[in-house]
């Protein structure tokens, strides 16, 4: 008996994001207020590459601005090609000089080694379902669920990701709802009605969060 062909994972586009934002606004009064005031959120694209994982590593527990400054420096040193080989050639000391912490340099180098050895295939992730992508990412040193969520949302453009470890989402939904959620599970329960468009709803919350602070969205 032949196996049915595997379904290609769905990716968000600017059009499907805008349509999804309207659908969410129709069903959620809080998102409706955001949509009426700010319109559809930006798509927020990143490349599905090793370089994006380095950027994500740099963003762990620091400001977006600080991480981008370090990321831009290393991209400049690598002449725009932030590949596993380029990072491995820089080695720990040069990465530290460019602004990596000891721990983040270790993570970036370990991931470079995994890519060069063929143990982690970044290009293959686009063909896999969300949970398989997540399991492969979190198996790498220094990459947890938040890192997987960011890659799934921004690089693979998956439509139904809820990054419960993301501070802007957590603070944003608490401020919007004027409710102190005590756990990630409570936020997940709150967001249940957003399925299967939780990535779009998250972008809408981010959009409101940064607007309230007078900043550009990531």
From TrEMBL:
GO terms for cellular component: cytoplasm; protein-DNA complex. This is DNA-3-methyladenine glycosylase II. It comes from the Bacteria. It is an enzyme of class 3 (hydrolase). The gene is alkA. It comes from Stieleria neptunia. Its EC number is 3.2.2.21. InterPro entries: Alkylbase_DNA_Glycosylase/TA, DNA_glycosylase, HhH-GPD_domain. GO terms for biological process: base-excision repair, AP site formation; DNA alkylation repair. Residues 58-210 form the HhH-GPD domain. Keywords: DNA damage, DNA repair, Glycosidase, Hydrolase. It catalyses: Hydrolysis of alkylated DNA, releasing 3-methyladenine, 3-methylguanine, 7-methylguanine and 7-methyladenine. GO terms for molecular function: alkylated DNA binding; DNA-3-methyladenine glycosylase activity; DNA-7-methylguanine glycosylase activity. PANTHER family: DNA-3-METHYLADENINE GLYCOSYLASE. Signal peptide: none annotated.
């Amino acid at each position: 008996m032949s196996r049915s062909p595997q379904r290609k994972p769905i990716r968000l586009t600017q059009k499907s994001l805008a349509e999804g934002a309207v659908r969410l606004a129709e069903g959620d009064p809080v998102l409706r207020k955001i949509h009426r005031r700010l319109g559809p959120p930006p798509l927020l694209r990143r490349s599905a590459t090793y370089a994006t994982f380095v950027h994500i590593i740099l963003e762990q527990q620091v400001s977006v601005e600080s991480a981008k400054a370090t990321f831009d420096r290393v991209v400049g040193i690598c002449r725009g090609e932030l590949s596993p080989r380029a990072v491995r050639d820089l080695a720990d000391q040069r990465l530290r000089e460019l602004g990596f912490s000891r721990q983040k340099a270790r993570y970036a180098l370990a991931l470079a080694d995994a890519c060069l050895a063929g143990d982690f295939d970044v290009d293959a992730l686009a063909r896999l379902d969300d949970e398989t992508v997540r399991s492969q990412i979190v198996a790498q040193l220094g990459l947890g669920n938040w890192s997987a969520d960011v890659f799934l949302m921004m690089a693979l453009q998956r439509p139904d990701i809820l990054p419960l470890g993301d501070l802007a989402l957590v603070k944003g939904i608490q401020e919007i709802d004027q409710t102190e959620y005590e756990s990630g599970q409570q936020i997940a329960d709150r967001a249940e009605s957003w399925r299967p468009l939780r990535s779009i709803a998250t972008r809408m919350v981010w959009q409101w969060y940064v607007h309230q602070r007078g900043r550009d969205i990531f």
